[in-house]
Design goal:
Layout (H helix, E strand, L loop, with lengths): L3 E4 L2 E4 L4 E7 L3 H4 L2 E6 L6 E6 L6 E3 L7 E6 L4 E6 L8 E7 L3 E2 L3 E6 L1
Parallel strand pairs: 2-11
Antiparallel strand pairs: 1-3, 3-8, 4-5, 4-9, 5-6, 7-8, 9-10, 9-11
Length: 113
């Protein structure tokens, strides 16, 4: 099991920003496709953003394109999700996953109107 730990969630007003961090052990960040997912109450878990281990190419859900940015710092073994222009509908528990196999416990993001 590869430990994956999210942090950085919290309560923010609509239009605000948050940066989530995902720390993983060893060489996980540089050898895994890292993705962020989210799950709102009563809804299925959905893909938010991903960064590939080869080349660091990024991908985003349509609902967050232009507002969220995924990045990684291999030296710090950390992946980030910068979330700007947050909306109430972004409220969810955000999860980080390595290769969709190793998952963190999630971090709550609540956006108030």
């Amino acid at each position: 099991q590869v430990p994956v730990v999210e942090s950085g969630g919290g309560l923010v007003q609509a239009g605000g920003s948050l940066r989530l961090s995902c720390a993983a052990s060893g060489r996980t960040i540089s050898t895994s496709d890292m993705r962020w997912f989210r799950q709102a109450p009563g809804k299925a878990r959905e893909f938010v953003a991903g960064i590939s281990w080869i080349g660091g190419s990024t991908s985003y859900a349509e609902s967050v394109k232009g507002r969220f940015t995924i990045s990684r710092d291999i030296a710090k073994s950390t992946v980030y999700l910068q979330m700007n222009s947050l909306k109430v509908e972004d409220t969810a528990v955000y999860y980080c996953a390595a290769n969709n196999v190793h998952w963190g416990q999630g971090t709550q993001v609540t956006v108030s109107s």
